[in-house]
Amino acid sequence: MEHEHAEKCSLILQEGKCNCYRSEEEELFESKQAPFQPATKDGPADVKAHPDEAGWAAIREHVARKLRGTRMNDQNLSADLNYSPIDLDEIRVLELQRGDHGDPLNGSLHVANIDFAYPEVKDYKRKTNHAISLAEGGPVWYTALSYTWGDPIFDAQFHFANGTSIQITSSLASALTHLRSQTDSIFLWIDQICINQEDVQEKQKQIPLMGLIYSHATSTVIWLGDERGDDPQLAFDTLQTVHERLIWFDGEIRSEDFERLRFPAPAASEWVEVSRMFSRPWFERLWVVQEAVLSKNLYVKCGKAVVAWEDFALWSSTAESCGIGAFLADGAPATKNQSGLSTMNELSTLRMYLQTQETPSSLLEALVTTRYANASDVSVRDVFLEASIAEFPMEIFRLLSCVDHDRPVSPSWVPDWTLPRATESLGYLTRSWSLYSACGPMFDSATGKAYDTEYALEDSNTVLVIPGIVVDTIAAVGEPLDEEPFMFISDDNIRANPTWLSYLMMAKAVTSYSTGETVWDAFWKTLAAGKDGSSHGTTPQEYSEVLSLIVDKCMDEEQHIPGQPYTARRQKGFFTLKSLTSRKPKQTLDDMRKAFRSAMHCRAFAITRKGHFCLVPRRTKVNDAIVVLQGGHVPFVVRGQKMVVTKGFELIGETYVHGIMKGEAFDRNSPRLEKIRLI
């Protein structure tokens, strides 16, 4: 089967062998992944990836059992239907027919069973890398596609073998054009085609299968988009160069180090291409991307350029750890807020963890990463409601942490999965349990067991009732922060976000803090939501002096907020803005900026009636209430009056409230506990 080579591939340039895929360990070890090829009917070229004798026995047993208990499904499209009905354990796989680059897109759909898995034999469990055809009694190899839909404009056509066609988005059409082979049919799983988008009930059945679909795929390709005037191969090459030259380097580089390291100049086109690469929509997700963390053989493709995930992850890790990420965010031309590199490294860490665990993916993780259109349709909202209820009780608080709405929805506690999340969640990832415990201890100290989650569903499952306490109400709230607090820092100047400056004025008006600590300490810790830049640890004390210097320069005065420090070395002129370019202070500044971005982006600074500082959802208003729920490790902002018309609260979203994040306001045995009704 022919491979689509990048325009600058050495083979195309007649300079040697193909280098579209270059493993970092190729010279020392056998490559862990073969060059990318979409799945064909014959399966992977590596015979080790095919079932052995024991595997075939397991497949035959599975097929026989399924045929005894279920009907035989039509394996191809019927003459008059685009979509044949499928069972709860079945998916459709697209066969994309061969063709040249400009040919129409043609293919057919095949039904396959997805719940087969190889059994464990003598402490060894073979990885499942295919679906099963019940009709043919063998594997259905397929490549899963991870991509962004783009604008919901269906302006391209896909033609089926029965003479019918459907409309697809141009972004998908571009991906199919680049993936298609000139010599063989390839087999793909793509949500936009393999799921009947007109059938709400089918969507509901397919959502729980997403984990199996990606974990059982023969391979998965992340499609970042076509070239659109960019040079993605140059971006890949630049990242590889950075990694190769810094592989044994410990520490961060500065722009003045570029010439010594033979890097492109800071304003060179190479950095523009890297910036554009990480600014692509696929990287805008701030959540666990299920396709990336579950797939075994994973590749990243942008136009004609393609690279194995393991290599791309290595390059990205080196780029961030040596300070290239901060350089891209601060200085590279034609850039905007750079979250792509950080997102990439978060995904890489999670993928590494999950690849070593036998932890199945939850339905919630599938919902987090699967965004279907037309959510305003009541029937689709019903799908989200039923899928959310399926996560109770184990995932109930992670589910509530997914609520991040720009507009009111009903029920308010059901996330709208069709809209991308604007904030980075405080309580979704389990690592937050070590940072926050607003409800007090999560485990019974006597038995060591986790406390049970109490809840009830009322009014046709549209009202969620959880014991909790209304701990405070919002007295003042600023505008949401849509950019970084301080966007530019030079040796003698700072350009600060006006919204952030207004937060400083709010804090300045407070004379004391309810916990007994200084107003300043409560303020700067709130801005980072009590976390460091990695979101794994608490805010380090080093942030205080650096931020105090920045605040004074922004406001052109000293000791602006009560308790704000003015250290001896600052008084003597030894710690200035220029100091922030030296290694240790710069490292603190970069980590602090990362912590602030994570905590504050699209949230607002607020003060409660009891004097607590908070970071609240962007829809928060004065008089909204703050509740701590039994079993919930982060508080939530809610709206409504309990005993009036609403008879419940609208959930606005999760919040950080400085001074109650360690159970200070909650006692699970308190008579103050009441039924918090979320409507």
UniProtKB/TrEMBL annotation:
A Pfam family it matches: Het-6_barrel
Top-rank taxon, per record: Eukaryota
Heterokaryon incompatibility domain residues: 142-291
Name of the protein described by the UniProt record: HET-domain-containing protein
Source species of the chain: Paraphaeosphaeria sporulosa
Lineage: Eukaryota, Fungi, Dikarya, Ascomycota, Pezizomycotina
